[in-house]
Amino acid sequence: MPRTAVPYTNLVPNGSLAEPAGTTINPTLVTNGVVIENADPEHTLIRVANTSTGAKAVTVRTGTGTQSWMAGQGDQATNVASETGVAYIGPFTSARFQQHGSKLHVDFASGTTGTITVLRLPRGF
Fold this sequence. Notes:
Elements: E1 4-5, E2 8-10, E3 23-25, H1 27-32, E4 34-36, E5 44-50, E6 56-60, E7 76-80, E8 85-89, H2 94-97, E9 104-108, E10 114-120
Parallel strand pairs: 1-4, 2-10
Antiparallel strand pairs: 3-10, 4-9, 5-8, 5-10, 6-7, 6-9
């Protein structure tokens, strides 16, 4: 099954942004994972809110192909605290995490519920 695309929310330089709703983490996302299309890893911050009981791991997968020459360092797994836990993950190194076609892949531990929001940091800050 294909990964579900999660869109960026752009942070506003010298401004503000109301808390975005995010994308609900449902069984399909847990099974298939998500993809961030047209990724800019160095300017990507992922916010995960965990509403399930028990801490859950969120894993950003290492890239494949020649652009990911640092992929040997492995995936990045972050535990998000239970029920009201929130974690901000990133920014990332392109040479380690960028998938072929300028994508990032994110996976969730079994039973994860909550939301994922992908934030794009402004350039030049």
